[in-house]
Amino acid sequence: MPYPKPQPPKFKLQVQEDETDHRLWHDVLAPDGKPYVFDREDEARTKLQELFPVLSGLEKYVAGPKRTRVIVIARDDDETPD
Questions:
Q1: Residues pairing with 15 in the sheet
Q2: Could you tell me if residue 81 is inside a domain?
C-alpha cells in the first residue's frame, strides 16, 4: 500500500518586538486575531514587507539581528486539508 503524499508546508509570519531579548518571537496576527498563514513563501514575504516595511527594509542594510521572519509550519500527515 503506497503512503499518501505529504501535504505541502504552510508559512507564517513572526516579529521580534523587544530588541533587547532576541529569544522572544511573536506570531503576526490578522485583524480577526488569528495568525497570518500562507500557502506560498513568496506571498508570506510580500505580506511581511507590507506590514513591516521599515523593519524588513532595515534588515537588508543593517548587520544587526533580524526582527522579522517567515517560518515553515510543520503539518501532520493526519491533518485534514483546509
A1: 26, 68
A2: no
